[in-house]
Amino acid sequence: MTDVLSQRFALACDIAKAAGKHTLRYFLQGDLQVDLKHDATPVTIADREAEELIRKQIAGSFPSDGILGEELSEKPGTSGWRWIIDPIDGTKSFIHGVPLYAVLIGVDFQEQSRIGVIHLPALGQTVYAATGQGAWQDRDNQKHQPIRVSQTKTLSDGLFLTSGISGFHRRGAWPAFERLTKTAKLTRTWGDAYGYMLVATGEAEAMVDPQMSIWDAAALLPILQEAGGTFTDWQGRPTISAGEGIATNGLVLDEVLKYVRG
User: Fold this and answer.
1) Beta-sheet strands, E only, within the chain
2) What is the rounded distance in angstroms from the CA atom of residue 110 to the CA atom of residue 80?
3) Which region, left, alpha or beta, applies to residue 98 given φ > 0 means left and ψ of -120 to 50 means alpha?
4) Cβ 156 vs Cβ 182: under 8 Å
5) Domain spans of the chain, in order of start
6) In 3D, which of 142, 19, 208 has the Cα closest to residue 220?
7) Whole-number pLDDT of residue 1
8) Phi, psi values for residue 9, rounded to 5°
9) What residues in the chain have per-residue pLDDT under 50?
């Protein structure tokens, strides 16, 4: 398992950065045509081309692996390995010139999350992890620096993040949002993968989203776990498939679960 995991881990990091470089050209030029998908969420040529680039690299190296991406049809596999791709996590940020968008790549084996990569092209920052191999960061010309979650013990001393408050309204969970914001020392909506990265690197204590897709979550679970934290659903179960997410430093998990459950 170690060799096949390490090979996929290395490829995931490389292709996330390559895809990010491709998206950055569009990000810097601006004035992109924006289309709406069937669920009314935006998509651009940068999203589609980045996913195509990632899929081509995976197919060339691991042709029997499955691929599930946000923009293109699922490719079944036979190896037990599956790549889960969000070519631009935070497309709304991307099209508005906000540099907090990310390329996300998660890899699971027999439905167990094994590898996660968060690459932020406009910030030149990458956070990555694989099961049993720790969690790491490349930033500011410093490569392979270990990351750990914070040691803050209570949310009243910590930073709480969410991708946006409208999801709490849609879920009927506005009281949960109010409990979290009233308790936390500081609340910000530095959303999408950027916020989860801040939990993994110790700058924030908790992030809660009431609505997530599997490609939003797949990269996060191994990164948070290897950094010493947690990624769970609103019931406290470690999963990428629940359509919701909570990331914490581990120390405030029970407190956050109490607030979201009411």
Assistant:
1) 35-36, 42-43, 66-69, 81-89, 102-109, 112-120, 125-130, 135-139, 142-146, 159-161, 186-188, 206-209, 230-232, 245-248
2) 5
3) beta
4) no
5) 2-145, 155-261
6) 208
7) 60
8) -60, -45
9) none
C-beta separation of 94 from 20 below 8 A: no
207 DSSP assignment: E
**Structure tokens, 72:** 């293109």
In the structure encoding, which two tokens stand for residue 8, read together?
């996929």
Residue 25: how many other CB atoms lie within 10 Å: 11
10: left (phi over 0), alpha (psi -120 to 50) or beta: alpha
**What topology does CATH give the domain 155-261?**
D-Maltodextrin-Binding Protein; domain 2 (3.40.190)
Tokens 């410093």 appear where? 142
- What is the pLDDT at residue 42? 84
C-alpha span between 110 and 189 (Å, rounded)? 34
Tokens of 131: 């099961």
Topology agreement, domain 2-145 and domain 155-261: no
Using alpha carbons, select from 174, 161, 251 the residue that is nearest to residue 206. 161
The CATH number of 2-145 is: 3.30.540.10
Q: Which one, of 195, 186, 193, lies nearest residue 89 by Cα?
A: 193
What is the CA angle 251-255-256, rounded to 5? 100
Residue whose token pair is 């292709």: 15
